[in-house]
Amino acid sequence: MAMDIDTNDELLQGPTDKEYPVLERQQSYYNPLHSFVLAKGEQKTYQQQYGDMYFLRLAKLKPVVEALADEEWKDFEIAGETVRRVDRVLDVRQGELCWVAGTVYMDMPLKPNILDDISKDHWISAPPPREKYLSPTGQDQTMLEDESGRLRLIGTPLQLSMLVTGCIIAVMGTENANGDFEVVDLKVPDLPRQPQRWERDEGSAVLSNGTGKKRKSDFDDRRTKGGKVAIISSLGISGDQGDTLTLDLLMEYLLGEVCGPTEQSQVSKISRLVIAGNSISEGTPLASREDEKKASKKYGYDSSAYNPAPTAHFDDFLATLLPSIPITLIPGESDPANVSMPQQPIHPAMFPRSRNYAAMPGSTEPGWFDSVTNPWEGDLDGWRMMGTGGQPIDDVFKYVEGDERLEMMESLLRWRCGAPTAPDTLWCYPFQDKDPFVIEECPHVYFVGNQPRYDTMVIEGPAGQTVRLICVPKFRETGEIVLLDTDTLEPEVVRFEIFEGKS
């Protein structure tokens, strides 16, 4: 219950007959997609080759980028020579002006090598992971490949464009005497079609009512003034006492317990909490094979090597919030989920208290507590949203100079690939029939968790698409959460800080 202390600056007041307004939390209209859910049981196997993913990606995006290139470069001339299209990279002829489409491959000596991983068992201590794969001596090379072969690219446009392994592009230029392709211009697939707001929800409602026509009552109620979505990442719960104060402040803020009446009214508009990865702190490193042999137990399980406190505290945190606010939980790199992308939902067995709010097994409707995949996409208050725990952007960061995370996010959308460096340097499942990382519909909001700092911008596409990009900062380091207005798609930041008094 809210206390009105505006009349006097005193906390202790006598009983009053004044009636206080009852605040209800804004309703969230939530319709998730299940694009990244893997098959279960024997249908999920890792025996297939990873190379098929590149061919699937190329087959999907090559016609798109070729259509853009043909429209842009048709009848293009340099020094009286008209450019022509080449179907395969090995059909490029020396001195001939042409354009060709393929998959980018970055040949970088400092990238991880599987042979190095195997040889780690013979090292006294493994070298620290590299922050960047860029070679300080300029040994990096940019290649364009398809099913026929590989071609080395050179030229100024490569220096001006952000490229990583796995993105699909079309390049125009000529092959020189050294066999290198000198690029004059290049094209990327650019943003795909963007669905209208409520498009998917309206289509589902039309099918469900069986009339083939939409009823006014189906949609008008949900199109009332929207609320806000809270997005947070990197709670980093370790189970130590040091977690509790900041988390308690966050919890009480979301529940409206630390605010005055005005602020409580604003908090009641927060219709959903999205946790974008790394809710649990980093675990202890895996022991070496020699240490495992020394510390082997009778039944193969060492209880002293497992600390249940982080998951128990996280479960308590969720269970306290869930009666008041629905939660979408995206796993991250340090969470108890599979390491390879796409990460599958954290198992409900990890949340003995919170799982009571999850959907029943076999249900088609999402629960109040929705543990989802990483990456994740879905419709929230009619807007198409896509988010990750940060691994694809963190991996792209290692390929390029600088630290412009928003530029990396924009590039991923314009490449139409949510994880271009998978499976080269980002672990992922070996898909055989379809590459789910190919972005087929442009989101309205694209957020990435566990980033060094908060940042945001809006980008536009060739067909009028607009996308709000949001870098979600690490809460454990910054104390910041992002509130996204679902009417205007304007974000704001709320910061929690602990001030220590002087002794």
Q: Can you characterise this structure?
A:
The protein is built from twelve helices and 20 strands. With 503 residues, it is of the alpha/beta class. The strands form four sheets. The chain has a six-stranded mixed beta sheet. Strand 2 and strand 3 (81-82) form a beta hairpin. The longest helix is centred in the first third of the chain and has 23 residues, at 51-73. The protein starts with 29 loop residues before the first strand and ends in an 8-residue tail after the last strand. Mean pLDDT is 85; it is low at 1-9 and 284-289.
Quick summary of this structure?
Helix content is 22%, strand content 21%. With 503 residues, the protein is an alpha/beta fold. The strands form 4 sheets. Strands 1-14-15-16-18-17 form a 6-stranded mixed beta sheet. Strands 13-12-11-10-19-20 form a 6-stranded mixed beta sheet.
